[in-house]
Amino acid sequence: MNSASSRSRTLKTVGALGMAAATAVLMTGCGQSSDSATSAATSEAAKVVPQKQTTSPSASAQLTEDQQERKKVLDATKVTFDDAATTATGEVAGGKLVDLDLEGVDDDDNDQSPSPTGSGSPTGSASPTGSASPTGSASPTGSASPTGTASPTGSASPSGTGTSRPSASPGADGPVWAAEVAEKDGTIHTVRINAVDGKVIEARVDADQDADDKKQTADLLAQATQTPQQAAKVATEKKKGTVTSVGLDDNEGNGVIWQVDVVGSDWKKTTFDVDAKNDTIVREETDKD
Q1: Rounded to whole angstroms, how far apart are CA atoms 79 and 176?
Q2: Mean pLDDT of the 85-108 span
């Protein structure tokens, strides 16, 4: 009788332990199922909601081709408009600035500007007129200047007052300021300046001027009572940025203007027509390219 009771108590104890173990297993399984379900839900949500991008696209990728070119040229330019203007006028005794342009800022500058090496042609050969190249080498014909006297550098100006002389070249890829400086009679000299170190690359009298061209230039300068520096100041007060071009022009018969190009921090170019007598802005246009 006592043995039967003992076995009964043992069986009950074993059964209780088995039930407890089963319960534990069930609870563990439920927990794992719950965690798995949560992880699966999170993964599915991640597929639906895109992850936030931590890096933004580069600024250059958002610029147009023209804006990227302006940025490239201006990043390399160390000589300001004011300094280039001072250097250019210093090359011509009593000269006044008529035009100053930073080459390469716009596509048409690349098409029309002389070779960066300062030579008369892309190959560095002499010009068709027979005058020497800016490097000082003699022309193929070996002829003297139109005045009949040869220049020490191998060429002379048509008026006999100016010369083309060699200077350091900035290299084919260096930015260049191209200036036109006029004498009192309207004779224009071309002066090209390295926009990195400020050295003069070339200084020569334009060979294709006639009496009418000179008179027209002299008349425009006589009407302009404001300097190009003053016009540039007016333009940059209206739009903060870098002056890349200033040129004197006729305002369609309504006096004369300084046309000023300013490139802003967005690398867009704005052109201002500034009255050359009273510094009033008469036109403003922004290039969206």
Answers
A1: 9
A2: 91
